[in-house]
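Please supply some protein, with fold tokens.
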Amino acid sequence: MRIAVLGGGPAGLYFATLAKQLHPDHEITVWERNAPDDTFGFGVVFSDETLGGIEHADPVIHAAMRREFARWDDIDVHFRGTVHTSGGHGFAAMSRKRLLGLLQERCAELGVDVRFHTEAPSAAEASAEYDLVVAADGVNSPTRNALAESFRPSLQTRRCKYIWLGTDLVFDAFKFHVLETPHGIMQIHGYPYSDTASTFILELHEDVWQRAFGEIAATSLAPGESDEKSIEVIRELCADVLGDHQVFANNSKWTAFATVRCASWRHENVVLLGDAAHTAHFSIGSGTKLAMEDALALAACLHEQSDMDSGLRAYEAERRPVVTSTQRAAQASLEWFENMGQYTHQDPAQFAFNILTRSRRVTYDNLRLRDPEFAAELDTWLASTLDSEVRPPMFQPFRIGNLDLPNRVVVSPMDMYSSEDGVPTDFHLVHLGSKALGGAGLVMTEMVCVSETGRITPGCGGLYTSEQEQAWTRVTDFVHGNTPARIGVQLGHSGRKGSTKLMWDGIDQPLPEGNWEICGPSAIPYTEANQTPRELTVPELAEIRDQFAESARAAARAGFDLLELHCAHGYLLSSFLSPLTNRRTDEYGGSLENRLRFPLEVFDAVRAAWPADRPITVRISATDWHDGGIDVDEAVEIARAFAEHGADGIDVSTGQVVSEEKPEYGRSYQTPYADRIRNEIGREYGVAVIAVGAISSYDDVNSLILAGRADLCALGRTHLYNPQWTLHAAAEQDYPMPWPKQYAAGSRKPQGGRTDGPKPRLELLRSGESGTAHARWRPGSHR
């Protein structure tokens, strides 16, 4: 096979060495426009996991790299005159220039034709002449651009500026230095890569950059030229960190990170590798690491499959999930640094934990394994701020309004579609009672509707008749009489999403018969199959407002401890908030102030009807997941408005407002919205913030609470799977949480250890003799 590799960076060279070892008869040519000793950047970072793959694939390369490594286990967070150190992280770095040199030497040993000072042929030319074209031509890939219709790339440029530098100060750990300058917050990412030098990256929000460097930064630089004026200012700004040490440049200039994604990595016999296919923010590891993992997988897949077409399909099938997971973590990390200013009020101990867990790959439990002493210090710090005993964060008590909760776990509202004429049944008694017996601090009902026509389905519960009130009283009496849990009611009105089938008969589908008229802010159906809602008149709005108030009075009489107003998920109040569903031209539509008017009128009426000593929360959708809809900036203002009207808490969900939404699902995918609102609105107004959305492990809950991203965590499907989830979480963490006396005999932790979720592990699959390049490595999936 004749193979053309376009680009002589680490990805292209490493692929060439592996492919040549597996098939010495292959003719492999690498094009590189730069000289052999030209390189840009300083150190590149590898995790132990990546190095394990390199070692098994090519022991010669690994041994050469190992001799060059600078290794560290610690991460130091320097913030407000303090240093917090976390150990056990296991990384290695080396000079990018030395890495290229080693790979070039290995190519020469194996007979790979590397052509320096030579422009690569175009994708069309190469694909016509060669059997396989591997485009490793970087983030600005000419190949990807030329074949954009096939690869369908998207590039998202972010809001921070950064500059990549080196220094002769040899750091003894990975360093995060947070600088509070007259221009604003800046951060240093620093790590050693040899016994004489370290990488030194300065990153700052574009607004801060404009104030600090906007007038002096070079607007145009020749290839290889560095921004010396900016670097001189950086030396002054970072003097306390650098001391007498030097800063040096190598094609160093300000840039904004671009996240590259491609819908496909392959066009006929052309395949993308490394940064040409995808990028991940430098704050979670080197792009070189990802690129070399790509190269290893591509070489192995081509070797294992019977033909090239199958090999390329196998490569993308294997690598895409890993890259997607990495990009998701990188996005979380990137956004954390963009928004770092919202965390600088935190205590340095909490800030250190926050920065370490920003990508959600490192967690509370993970840090307990890596560095038990550091984790214990954090537990002690949190307990001291609450005047409480040391315990896992999720079991620290919490006070919302005047209501004391025994822990931070909430059973999220979940529609059960099992009421009869709006009356909850024995099912609800068992369903909600079992969750309260299971140890959660707060158990929420499903959305309880304020009128018969405000139901979603015929099976939805209500609070608009005395019979319904009595049935709910039976539930609250059980919870209060048998558990320490508190129970809350969520009040809502279906709006344009009403008159539909039970979920298991067809979610959001209209009833085959017996439909009732539905209403909304505007005459816009949820889908083409649903009814078109009647646009509500102002007198009808007043009538619905009064229905909410009357239901709130009934909820109080029924004994609920907390009331939540449902302003999310496209139901009536939510549809007033979103510009996608509210097209009114009167005082209830248009601007955000106008779109908030009716939900706030309802809130005020409910607050007046609900006992003053019992808290009210509001659930919102913090994004519509659709262009032109609510985004996180508007969500902050919505939360602010409810806080100013007296809300005790904001329950932060997302989406379900329009059927055309495109949510970005993933573990804890909604929590960044809760994080933003808590650290802006929650802190300013003293309101609690509840995080929800694919939170499924006690590790997630502990991490979110300790980092200050939420005050409470609501879990839904997790409690359907295991009604005693909180009790089991306590047992698995060896926390002596009291069990109901009837269940005490089962309170001992079962043998066999935790079952909280899978751990990432290496899996080595060999397709040939042990210890040769035939060894196959698959990265484990990250939690």
In short: Residues 753-783 have pLDDT under 50 and may be disordered. The two ends are 39 Å apart (CA to CA). DSSP finds 26 helices and 31 strands in the chain.
